[in-house]
Amino acid sequence: MRDSKGSAGVSRRSVLKLGGAGVAGAVFAPHVARAATGMADTLIFKCHGTGSGNIIATAVADALQKTTSSRVRISPAANGVALVLPLKLGGADYTFAANELFFASEAAFEFGTRDWGGPQDLRMVLAPPKALALASAKDANIFYPKDLKGKRVGYVKGSPSVNVKTDAYLAFAGLTRDDVEVVWLSNSSVGSKEGLINNQIDAVTYTTNSPAMKEVELSSRGLRWVEFPPDDKEGWARLQAIMPAITPRHDTNGEAMSKENPVDIMGWKYPQVACYDSRDADEVYAFIKALDESYDIYKNAHPDIGNLHISKAGHSPADVPFHEGAVRYLEEKGVWTDEDRAWQEKRLDRLAKAKAKWNAATEAFGPWLEEKKAAGYTGSDDEAWAEFWEAYRTS
Q1: How many CB atoms lie under 10 A from the CB of residue 112?
Q2: In sequence order, what are the residues at sequence separation of 6 or more whose Cβ sits closer than 8 angstroms to the Cβ of residue 193?
Q3: What angle do CA 261, 267, 272 make, to 5 degrees?
Q4: pLDDT tens column, 229-253
Q5: Beta-carbon neighbour count of residue 59 at 10 Å?
Q6: Contact in structure between 131 and 208 (CB atoms under 8 Å)
Q7: Could you give the percent of the chain with pLDDT greater than 70?
Q8: At what angle do helices 211-218 and 189-197 cross, to 10 degrees?
Q9: Quick one: pLDDT at residue 27?
Q10: Which residues of 226-249 are buried (b: 16+ CB within 10 A; e: fewer)?
């Protein structure tokens, strides 16, 4: 429901506090007119400003405009907050996003401020699989996660998505940041590549198909992917307790790997096409149907775009539950399985528990803050909440 502030119950002041710099170009107006296809007359997609997510979103938009009467506008985002916030405020319809969806659904990190109002009711439309790995310099002799102990591991300033994944990789071997030498990088793409080549780090999370990793492979240090054995059930349980959407993946297609030299790495979902649960189920049904029926038009736009086919992208796990409109279409097409249904119920239960925890925390915060101030605390209430919620959320 939109109020007089022109948004979904969020003031302009909140927009600035939530990260307005990343959504400065958005127009927070509802899109209610319907095209003949059952989709909105005009659709706005959020996506990363560069990279495969941008290319895929653009190709999909072009295909939809050729096959439906909907107009589609691409709106690049500067960061994870900007990939989600416009959807919350009504200035965008769908996002092509990464793990910010999971963090928003958990009210974690940038999404844990009181302005956000708790775990977000985001829903998946399609979740295409993609390879994910932990790159290491070959001369560092890191073969498995246990070999990371005492090594220099790259983390990226201001990037919870990278850093939480890295924590999960360490957890696979029962390690934490205290067991490694944390090296803070200012940039994920450039910093990771240069850090490995220039002998500043020994390992860092990265995708397997990239010019950056090809440079590492050809450098004097060389490239090796750290392997996560799929039969190590306890290791995977520890990893997935932190990042539940990451799964085992046996891969042969990427730098420093081949059919003759396969690797056991990880899989995740990107770019995940998502919206809010409040989006009309019939409209989401029409949208995923249009994506499916126009697949032949956009399927060659990028090496990864084939994974957007519903046979691959219409399955769990994903960062958030699937939208009911998407599930209805996937069921009709025979894609949605009993395993997906079981996962959906479990994921919805986790979201409900996260909301309950937020509500309990908001009630407990006042008395906690009073005691803190009585003990001499002079900081802001927002800073106090950030400290309180992070401890409460992870307890």
Answers
A1: 21
A2: 212, 213, 215, 216
A3: 140
A4: 999 999 999 999 999 889 999 999 8
A5: 19
A6: yes
A7: 90
A8: 0
A9: 43
A10: bbbeeebeebbebbbebbbbbbeb
From the list 71, 95, 73, the residue with the least C-alpha distance to 82 is 95
How many angstroms separate the CA atoms of 47 and 234, rounded? 35
Residues 6+ positions from 198 with CB-CB distance below 8 Å: none
Distance CA 252, CA 255 (A): 9
Peptide bond into 317 cis (omega under 30): yes
Number of H helices, E strands in the chain: 14, 12
CA–CA dist 356, 358 (Å, integer): 5
CATH number for the segment(s) 12-128+271-350:
3.40.190.10
Scanning the chain, the segments in alpha helix (DSSP H) are: 12-19, 52-67, 80-89, 100-106, 160-172, 189-197, 211-218, 233-242, 281-293, 295-298, 310-313, 324-332, 338-374, 381-393
Query: Residue 386 to residues 92, 169, 227, 354: CA-CA distances in angstroms?
Result: 28, 25, 35, 16
Which tokens sit at 332?
């009709």
At position 228, the amino acid (one-letter code) is F
Distance CA 13, CA 10 (A): 8
Radius of gyration of the chain (CA): 21
In this structure, the number of other CB atoms found within 10 A of the CB of residue 102 comes to 24
Which part of the chain has CATH 3.40.190.10?
Answer: 12-128+271-350, 130-269
CA dist., res. 40 & res. 284, Å (int): 10
Nearest to 16 by CA among 72, 98, 81, 65: 81
State residue 217 phi and psi, 5-degree precision.
-60, -35
> Which single residue is written with the structure tokens 């691409």?
74
Rounded Cα distance, 40 and 32, in Å: 6
* Residues forming a β-bridge with 133: 206
Order of strands, sheet of 42-48, starting from the edge strand that comes earlier in the sequence: 71-77, 42-48, 94-97, 272-276, 122-126
Q: Which residues lie closer than 8 Å to 291 by C-beta, 6 or more apart?
A: 60, 64, 125, 126, 273, 308, 310
CATH H superfamily, domain 130-269: Periplasmic binding protein-like II (3.40.190.10)
Model pLDDT for residues 54-93, shown as the tens digit of each residue: 999 999 999 999 999 999 999 999 888 999 999 999 999 9
